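Researcher: Here's a chain I'd like modeled. Treat it as a single chain, no partners, no ligands.
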Amino acid sequence: MSEETRAPSRRSVLGWGGAGLALGAAAAGGTVALTRGGDHTAPAADGGAAVPFHGDRQAGIATAVQDRLHFAAFDVKTEDRAELVRLLKDWTRAAALMTAGHEVGEGAFGGLPEAPPDDTGEALGLRPSRLTLTIGFGPSLFDGRFGLAGRRPGALVELPKFPGDNLDPARSGGDLCVQACADDPQVAVHAIRNLARIGFGKVAVRWSQLGFGKTSSTTPDAQTPRNMMGFKDGTRNIAGTDAKALDQHVWVGPEDVRGASAWLAGGSYLVARRIRMNIETWDRTSLQEQEDVFGRDKAEGAPVGKAKEHDEPFLKAMKPDAHVRLAHPDSNGGATILRRGYSFTDGTDGLGRLDAGLFFLAYQRDVRKGFVPVQTALARHDALNEYIQHVGSALFAVPPGVRDKDDWWGRALFS
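Model: Modeled as a single isolated chain. Structure tokens:
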């Protein structure tokens, strides 16, 4: 759209942070009304892959794992339920636009010079890059501020303190979370930045984490990625196309959430853990010990005594404290989770050591039958514990998808 045809609006003066974002009237026109000037303006970037935003399930769970992550947990500052609902609606519209490669609101330029633009602009000219945005609700959101205490699902528990945990409260918890995954880090950062800007005064970022180098895959036909310790990770992860396994282990069924918590049916539970790796110690460990710790060889990723990565492991051939042996479903009553973790490196710790490790993300149908029993076994006996420490933790209930342009994040919860 040319500069001459962009008409100023009241929203241009108020910005996305004012007067309930001044979107009520525009919303009636659907998503197109939230693009520049309310017409069929071209996306911020033509071409490039876009993952559909609307659907029965939220994208970013079974979706093929992208290369980059920006994860943010938010504290809700407003105590007005209607204001929170308004924010969730505005976030949903902005998310639908950004995942399609569009700018937020009326765009990054062309409005009144006296007002801040709707979009921060750093994704202009970039492709959608398979951006997905996935929201979750933490246990603290159900504390009574918004009349939701009776709608808290049974599996949205406070995670137990596991042996060896050294959790930083400033890197744990949160009322809300948004997981932004994309193949371009700037696209992911742009998405979180704009949601935080839209939410200014109503929510505040509690903590966030950038991630690179996916450490798990939902596409088992692709090459298995490696973690910061140099080992392949996620070999036995659930495939995003395995509907039976997803229904059994990932998606919350109607029978799991009857009554007031039925809003979560079709959703999932997300555990986020920031795991610091003692990189320098690991790098001075012998190759044999490294392989014994994991229970796989470093070159191929084959389990002990096997030739290929995907060969069925013989658990008893591994050392009793081998990571693979302890984490395997056969060692945990069949407990299975879907992993979407990422590596991170956040500079140094002031002592010359890399602040690096794994930002572990796991989706499951019931955390009490998934992450908790597996992590309990690992925390007690895993040989890998000598080289890692869990320093951040959070749990979120992830609602089902946004079905169409009239739906919004959390609608069933707040209805």
